[in-house]
Recover the amino acids of this structure.
């Protein structure tokens, strides 16, 4: 059980711009109803600037429940183009299993 106690499940969100100036939101850890509001606070300022495209980097995201999916869909609803970059295998399967690949297209 000590190993489980050492794992920090907190979800984090970090916003950067790629070389083309596209906002990239890197989500890491776990996203669930206990922390989604804190992540929304980080993401909202990006949405206020009304970018044409937002990319999500999900390579370090280990878990996401329906509240995390709702957060991604909220961003997709307010942005012309959303892309998912390099999702972990778990996140790729989640997006595919929920039928959201057209709304959240995956780039490898």
């Amino acid at each position: 059980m000590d190993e489980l106690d050492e794992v920090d499940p907190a979800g984090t969100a970090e916003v950067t711009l790629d070389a083309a100036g596209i906002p990239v939101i890197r989500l890491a850890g776990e996203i669930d109803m206990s922390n989604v509001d804190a992540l929304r606070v980080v993401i909202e300022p990006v949405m206020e600037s009304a970018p044409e495209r937002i990319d999500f980097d999900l390579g370090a995201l280990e878990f996401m429940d329906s509240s995390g999916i709702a957060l991604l869909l909220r961003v997709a609803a307010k942005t012309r183009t959303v892309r998912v970059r390099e999702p972990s295998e778990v996140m790729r399967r989640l997006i595919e299993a929920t039928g959201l690949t057209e709304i959240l297209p995956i780039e490898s």
